Amino acid sequence: MTAAGNKTASGGRDQQALDAMTIRLIGAIASATRKSIEKGELPHIELPVRSLANVNYAVEKGYFELGSALKTRTLTVNTVRSFAQTLRLMAASRQMVRDNDFATKREAYYISKNWGDCRFDEQAESDAIMDDIEALASLHGLSREQLRFYPESHGGSVAGPLTVVDTDPGSGALLGIDCANLGSGAYSVPRAVEHLGFKTDADFILAIETGGMFQRLNNHRFWKQANCILVEMGGVPTRATRRFIRRLSDETDLPVYCFVDCDPYGFANIYRTLKVGSGNAAHINQFFCVPRAQYLGITPQDIIDYRLEDATHPLTKTDIKRARDAIRNDPFFASHPRWIAAIEQLLGMGVRAEQQALAKWGLNYVIDDYLPRKLKTTESFLP
Amino acid sequence: MAKEEPSYRTAYEMAGRQRDISVSEFFLKNRHLLGFDSPSKALLTTVKEAVDNALDACEEAGILPEIRVEVIDYGDNIYRVVVEDNGPGIVEQQIARIFGKLLYGSRFHKLSQSRGQQGMGISAAGMYAQLTTGKSLHVISRVKGERLASELFVTIDTAKNRPELHGRKKIKWNRSHGTRVEVEIEGRFQKGPHSVEMYLKQTAIASPYVSIHFQGPRGEAIRFRRCTKQLPPWPTEIKPHPRGIELGRLIQMLNSTRSRSLLKFLETEFSRVGRKTAQEIVSHAGPHLTERSLPRRIAHVQARSLYRAIKRVPVSAPRTDCIVPIGEQRLYEGMRKEIDADFYIVSTRPPAVYRGNPFQVEVGLAYGAPGGANLQVDAGGRIRKTAHPRRAAAATLELHGEEPAHLLRFANRVPLLYEQEGCAMTRAVLQTNWRSYGLQQPKGALPVAPLVILVHLASVWVPFTSEAKEAIAAYPEIIRELKLGVQACARKLAEHLRQEGRLKREYEKRSHIEKYLPHVGIALQEILDLTDEQRDRSVARLDDVLQHTRKVP
Questions:
Q1: What's the domain range around A20?
Q2: Is the entire prediction scored with pTM above 0.80?
Q3: Among A136, B186, B261, B504, which one has the highest count of C-beta atoms within 10 angstroms of its own C-beta?
Q4: Is A110 a catalytic residue?
């Protein structure tokens, strides 16, 4: 690993420019609608098709992306309700951008309760409309956070040699948060990360599946020993965490290593989602995937190399189904022979191993032995 | 112990007991045959027979009927029924026989469309009164032009089927002409489908030129107003058609004819038989009969071959101008007047023939709550909700979507309230596949819909299944005509339902649109910072655009 020096990126993306784009986009859709009406035509909005049929795995880009198929939502009997709701939600979004405010998905659902007949009956409805607007905005390089709709769940924890440059929401003053100086605690990734800036001299980012492992590494200051930034994912990473890691790695040009359980869920759900995103929300993957992510461990080969066989559990039926499905149907795994070999190896062994299995050799074996050994051969990490 | 001898009788002993059974006595023992089997039915039958007679009399005399019906409760299940009409009145000498002798009347011996056809109903009511209360029939009648009315009290000598008079006098009466019949019977006054009120209401439907005042025993006063002053023409009489004749009737006719030769007999006593046809019949009637045979002398065997000849020789179909239907216009008006519904359709079939008897079928349907979907398409192609003033609904004929349709059956304009199951009209309605006309229909039952199905059979001789005149016999020709009539109306109803359904769906779609349009306006206003006027103009414009892109069904 080369010494990266002190890589900085100040102030994040230009928040004002993004806000102006958002307002322009919403205004343009409303104008077009009004113009159609004045011309005596039925207004329509063109939205990307969000179904899986319109999702492709872009091998060279390394993530799932939305195809070019568009659906036209023309104002008719069947669509008038969702048409009105789409416009009203856009109006709400525009207002939030202007007021520098935000709404969670749940809050957006409740905003509509003031809309009379037009209100959403269930959150699933408002979520679907929101996804439509988000997909539309994504065509213009804008994410949902830009529309001021924030996810419900916050991001994971961060520790290590990193200063996050944030803005005080009250005063607007810039704040530097030193993630190496938070004692036994850690920095918590906010719901929206677009405006953050980063300063670091770390060599890499280590994304960790479990909170327990993160705590162990943080408490024993592993980040100091390895000069890295620790990020806790807590299972499948939330949007905020994914976007944070993506922006951090983009802005600071640092590699991302993933340290997760050795089981099909760890491969196909946690790691795959972080790296290439999910088919369900293909329209946002361009912002949320982390194409630079690499799989550190625990690999099936690690079970043998570190003699963890007696610390494993047999694969469940669900595990086996998930593993087979990944080999057969997942274009990401399918395009990486090394992954296919690894998953087949795991299926052949018929067992899975958790990160904590390393404790078999002592609680700090992972710090003293496993991670340093693995980090010596980063080229052997799975893609 | 003495062995008990069975009390067998000799033929002589039996002969001593054998005697005439009077018709009156027979019906005294079989009163159900005339519709007097239960107290409630007896009350209704009494009203019905009196009203039917009154209407027949008025119509035959060309008088617009004005009928008063009163039912008075005397307690202990005793009721007095009073029916008064403005008819031509009855000549005094006839009163006793009309009211005091069974099977006496003007209708039985001829073929002509009228309500009564047997001359039995009203005297049966008198007999029933005699049996249950012991009271005589009280009749007042004044013939037009006479200074005084006749008042009589009549009973029947049931053994001899002969009227007995108890007091007869001339009295002053405030009607210039008409008849009033009072009879006191054991009965029960009830509401519902077999009520006096229902019978009168249906009478008012089928004879919309009739005006009826009804005074019920619980103080209810109901007036059925006429909606037309035009009386239907009085049907012409016809002679029997050779197709419908039975051997017994033929022998009876041969015996009672005044014609002196067989040829003349055939020519004068039958409808559609001219000289040529008569000659042809005689030539086929066997070697023992000639054109000059004396009808009264024709023996049974020869009558039989004559009968065969009559059936063999082709004769043109009977005249049908002797049938007077209610008529589509009048039936429509009658239904509109008495049934609160949204859609009415009537159909009068062309006359047809069963067993040589001409008949004609009429069908009417009244569907839906008044106002229906209450939707109207205005000149601009917009659909508007309309307010519909609800008439005072007649409690007896309310239309409910969840209940089976009401079936109203009529024979020669007389409502048939009993024996619905055994009636050819019911059969024809049930055999109609209402589902194919857009209604629900449980298997083998009436359709379930807010619907009144009215069926009328007019004929010179209505083939009732019993003397109580409650149901029509199922002749295939009649069933066929009934079905065709029902189908003709049902097709129109289906068309209406489809149209209404389309309009309703379109209205629902449009109101759906209109519900959400303001929100498009609000959103545009918020995003584009429009003024209220600009917003409202955009919404109005959008409404126009949407209305124009939709077709009015």
A1: 15-150
A2: no
A3: A136
A4: yes
